[in-house]
Amino acid sequence: MLNLNNIAKTYQTEKIETIALKNINLNINRGEFISIMGPSGCGKSTLLNIMGLLDEPSDGEVKVNGKSITSYHDKEMASLRNSKIGFIFQSFHLIQDLRVIDNVELPLLYRKISAKERRRLATAALERVGLKARTSHFPSQLSGGQQQRVAIARAIVGKPELLLADEPTGNLDSHMGNEIMQILESLHKDDKTTIVMVTHDDELAKRTERTIRVYDGQLIH
Ligand code: ADP
Ligand code: ADP
2-220 in CATH: which number? Predict the structure, then answer.
């Protein structure tokens, strides 16, 4: 569903050039659960951002469902991203002054969906992560693990084909981390969601189908 062909990414800041990625060739098949591992600063977040169409490569080609997106404009990229991709981050990225349910509805605001339907879909997504009883809470009233479950509900509310998770358990203790992993495993098994997860945890990586290792901006096989 996603092909990265000869991807490179260079960051240019003043006089310093950082090569974050080079020679990246990677195919992600529909339904896979993939983990990405590698030391800090090796390019994992950059890779995930390119997969998620949040960032454009400096070189190479990204194909979504067989179609090159090189010629896409920002607006087309945003629309593709909003309809097909969900994101989860280490630090949850919830909006603190919105209630749980309103956080989960956010991705649907870009779509032509009635308020009633938005509420129905968000409630179902919260039910999916076991948080239906917390819809009216604010994020600060929840534990870290619960906040991450809200973030997962927000990521899946639009039924994305691809779920990208950047160290989703990095801020959680192992018990809560395991709960989050179980939800991801269930989304993979039961809902057939394709998942790519960055992790530093070997035990979690072993539970995925394939581990990709990044070192110094390159994939090592
Ligand atoms: P990781 O997620 O593995 O920690 P990153 O993808 O965040 O690695 O970063 C890879 C390299 O690119 C690092 O050297 C980092 O400092 C650099 N980098 C990442 N984002 C930027 C940016 N926006 N501007 C400049 N350099 C960046
Ligand atoms: P993590 O290691 O938890 O993945 P980082 O703290 O490395 O996250 O990066 C957070 C964000 O900051 C990333 O999206 C990355 O693009 C950006 N970033 C990382 N390194 C740099 C840098 N040297 N200059 C500017 N932005 C950066």
Answer: 3.40.50.300
